[in-house]
Amino acid sequence: MSALALIFRQPALRLIFLALLLLGAHNASVYPYQSLIAIERIGLSEPAFALVLVLASITAVSASVLLGILGDQRGHRRRIALLATLSSLIGLLLMLMFPGKLSLILCHGILLPIASSLYGQLFALARLVTPDSLTRDPVQAGLRSAMSLSFLAMLVFWTFGFSAQIDVMAIYVSAGMASFGLVVLIYFSWPRDGATEWADQRSGLNFRQAFKEIAHPSILLRLLLLGAISASGILYMVLVSLVFDASAVRDASDVALYVGLVAGWEVPCLLLLPRLVSRVRRATLLAVGSAVYTLHLLAMPILADTPWIWAMTLVAGIGGTALISLPISYYQDLMHNRPGTAGAMLALQKLVSDVLGAAAFAIGMTMGGYETVAILGSVLAVLGGAGLLWVDRRHT
């Protein structure tokens, strides 16, 4: 509660909290249903949708890394955040006005991935506001809980909405409203350069030097391992709507309820996590979290028709908390005094996890089906967690 009190007292942290509330509503509207819309409504094949995921990853990582480095070089973080939110708004309007394959590729493959750089920029700002490591973990966990809270609220809304026979394409309306809110919030409330209480020290690195820093073997190895861990989360978002759609007893409202319950369990877990971080290494928590998370991924295609599927939401919430909260502070420690670049590492991680997830999806669907995809994703996550424990074995 002290972390939440600090968030609401500090204007910049309050801005981040509100922005993450809107971002959670945006993500909850779009991502649980993108595979269903792309394959079932727009008519993309499963391999073609996998290529859209790869395109999205390449776009996201390119935008996030370039904008993150640029932010560390020159500042202009408010302009970068505005660019991201406007990209989201334009992409969603395309899907509303001209639904089709081209709009879907532009929206989900290019514009929304550019917009995803906002997440790293928000936590770069949080790092500048809270440089003290003792307060950083509780504050960042409190901020991240805002995103899970709104994620839950929006999915509860869509649970009732789909039960009332609202068309699934209406998700672009709620996502568009959230994006418009982000544009307004960032335009009026983001701190302007040179007018802050904290120092935003410039990196002094050109692009070549910044890329060389990112490409250091010790950083790249950890990036690959964290990407393997996160691939399970990517596959969860891809599989959940497809598995429930294929079920004889589930529908779109069950997708919203399931994903919403997972997000709901994440909120208290996020607020409790800083107590563990002060006692247990981040690498250990990430490895344990990935192992727990795989249990729900494996169970989803097996238990989808049974009441036991709802028990898996608690398992997913506990395991997923480490996966969504700890990487940002892990990268901030690796990339000291480079908050923008550390935030961009999340996009690089997502590139790795998206490529691995897309490969697991394509191979799994070719070899068997949704169960095989879940098994491949679980193997990747467990290997990534074990590898991270090994490379960080001498770190305290």
Summarize the structure.
By secondary structure, this protein is mainly α. 82% of the residues lie in helices and 0% in strands.
- CATH T-level topology: Growth Hormone, Chain: A
Average pLDDT level = 85
Q: Supply Rg.
A: 20 Å
Order of helices and strands: HHHHHHHHHHHHHHHH
Uncertain runs: none
Q: Which CATH class?
A: Mainly Alpha
Q: Helix/strand-derived class?
A: mainly alpha
Instruction: Name the shape in a single word.
Output: globular
Question: What is the annotated CATH architecture?
Answer: Up-down Bundle
User: How big a fraction of the residues is strand?
Assistant: under 5%
CATH homolog superfamily: MFS general substrate transporter like domains
Number of domains: 1
> Helical percent range?
over 70%
Number of helical regions: 16
Tell how many strands the DSSP assignment holds. 0
Most strands sheet: none
End-to-end C-alpha gap: 27 Å
Give a description of the structure.
By secondary structure, the chain is an all-alpha fold. It has one domain (13-190, 206-391): MFS general substrate transporter like domains (Growth Hormone, Chain: A, Up-down Bundle), CATH 1.20.1250.20. 82% of the residues lie in helices and 0% in strands. Helix 2 runs parallel beside helix 8 (133-163). The two termini are 27 Å apart. The model has no long low-confidence stretch (mean pLDDT 85).
